[in-house]
């Protein structure tokens, strides 16, 4: 076993270790809206469930040179967003939204998503996602590295669940994970599909 203190590794080396060791990571494709009503769409793999009572998911949005990304700024300003699950059918489109654009330019100009009006929030949903959550901002925490803010952690409370009929069985309450076919993020340019399943009985 090789051991390193955080002081012995560069930030880039630490990031490579984290994204290589912690995976596959679920991917949230988030639509938000600016004060000028520009729709921003961007994918994030620092994403997961925080709570189910109430239903809250979290996403960590890394800053660039200390500057807040459009998604974080929009959500903090307007207190709402739509979170979509990236799957095998929409991952190529989702990848197109990862480009760096000025705040006044929408990723929808480059990724051919179909927008749908949301029920309770202003940002639109994306029809190509089998799962989407309309959310409100529950909490915002800044992450510091010394005196510098390096990330914005957003906790988003789910207000409305939208689930494709082919993946959700209301009688059992379960999502068919094979039909959803969510993909996970690995390191570099790599993604992972749902593979072989196995079960272990809890003690």
TrEMBL record:
Read off the InterPro entries from this record: Flavin_Rdtase-like_dom, Split_barrel_FMN-bd
Please provide, alphabetically and separated by semicolons, the GO molecular function terms listed in this UniProt record. FMN binding; oxidoreductase activity, acting on the CH-NH group of donors, NAD or NADP as acceptor
Locate the coiled-coil region(s) and give their ranges. Answer: none
Q: Does the keyword Aminoacyl-tRNA synthetase apply?
A: no
Q: Which residues form the Flavin reductase like domain?
A: 22-176
Q: Does the keyword Coiled coil apply?
A: no
Top-level taxonomic group: Bacteria
Per the entry, which co-factors are needed? Answer: FMN
- PANTHER family xrefs: FLAVIN REDUCTASE LIKE DOMAIN-CONTAINING PROTEIN (PTHR33798:SF5), FLAVOPROTEIN OXYGENASE (PTHR33798)
Q: What is this protein called?
A: Flavin reductase like domain protein
